[in-house]
């Protein structure tokens, strides 16, 4: 993605005002201490700003409260309102991405979010709302956004990604024990290798008995069942999008034996890898999700 670019949109049509509209979006790096936006002095009206810190440090005052924003921290604010965000004197840079929205549905969701969660948020850069902003910018820089309906779709989908994260993903991560998060991350990173239950248990730092019970209670699958799910989902992608042989795919997703891979695959989906790849009587999909 190209650095330091801001894109604005002024499409005609009621769809953006009734639902959600895309006003501006971009990525910036601010180093001048003249950078300051006062929410009561801006010309824009009825706008919603989400700004996410990539690096450095910024600051925002919301009424009588002042918040310092560092990496992975964001704010959600509406214009006009009593706020001011700026590059503080004790910071030499503030790198961020942002998206500015408007529309009746956008405003309704804004009030729902801020009433329940406040204005300040912390989220990893790989969460879906942040990835969605990067995706929109990439689309703008490659093929562009052509009309109000397309712009409204991207604006509304960002709100849905944000709400989904706040209502489900954030809650799940906070409720899931750290030992389980470590195990899940290990499985997703190492599924292609010859890993065993003992390897997964070791990462968790718990006893095998306690870990297995906790993992199963949390994810409704045993650790081995979860590993199998991850491997088969990856195999489905390779079967659909590559010409690799079944033996090559088996090894790529962590199975040393072609025959055992086929046995596990059939037990999961009811057909062999070869049958799945050759089946012409089922509508093809780019990705198949399994439970």
Automatic annotation (TrEMBL):
Keyword list, A-Z: DNA-binding, Transcription, Transcription regulation
Entry keyword annotation includes Transcription regulation: yes
Origin superkingdom: Bacteria
Occurrences of domain HTH araC/xylS-type (ranges): 181-279
GO molecular function, one term: sequence-specific DNA binding
Transmembrane regions: none
PROSITE patterns linked to this entry: HTH_ARAC_FAMILY_2
A Pfam family recorded for this sequence: AraC_binding
Annotated protein name in UniProt: AraC-type DNA-binding protein
Species per Swiss-Prot/TrEMBL record: Amphibacillus marinus
Organism ancestry: Bacteria, Bacillati, Bacillota, Bacilli, Bacillales
């Amino acid at each position: 993605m190209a650095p330091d670019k801001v894109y604005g949109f002024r499409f005609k049509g009621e769809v953006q005002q009734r639902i959600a509209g895309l006003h501006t979006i971009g990525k910036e790096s601010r180093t001048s201490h003249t950078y300051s936006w006062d929410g009561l002095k801006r010309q824009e009206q009825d706008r919603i700003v989400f700004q996410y810190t990539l690096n450095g440090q910024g600051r925002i005052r919301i009424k009588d409260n002042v918040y310092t924003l560092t990496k992975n921290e964001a704010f959600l604010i509406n214009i006009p309102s009593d706020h001011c965000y700026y590059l503080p004197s004790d910071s030499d840079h503030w790198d961020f991405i942002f998206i500015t929205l408007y529309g009746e549905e956008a405003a309704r969701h804004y009030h729902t979010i801020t009433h329940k969660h406040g204005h300040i948020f912390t989220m990893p850069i790989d969460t879906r709302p942040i990835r969605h902003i990067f995706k929109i910018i990439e689309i703008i820089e490659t093929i562009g956004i052509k009309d109000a309906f397309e712009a409204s779709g991207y604006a509304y989908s960002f709100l849905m990604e944000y709400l989904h994260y706040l209502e489900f993903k954030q809650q799940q991560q906070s409720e899931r024990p750290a030992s389980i998060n470590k195990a899940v991350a290990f499985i997703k990173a190492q599924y292609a290798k010859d890993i065993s239950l003992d390897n997964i248990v070791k990462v968790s730092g718990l006893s095998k008995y306690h870990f297995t019970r906790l993992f199963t209670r949390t994810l409704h699958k045993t650790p081995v069942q979860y590993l199998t799910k991850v491997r088969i989902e990856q195999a489905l992608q390779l079967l659909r999008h590559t010409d690799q042989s079944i033996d090559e795919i088996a090894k790529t997703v962590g199975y040393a034996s072609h025959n055992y891979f086929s046995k596990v695959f059939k037990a999961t989906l009811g057909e062999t890898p070869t049958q799945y790849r050759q089946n012409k009587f089922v509508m093809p999909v780019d990705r198949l999700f399994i439970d």
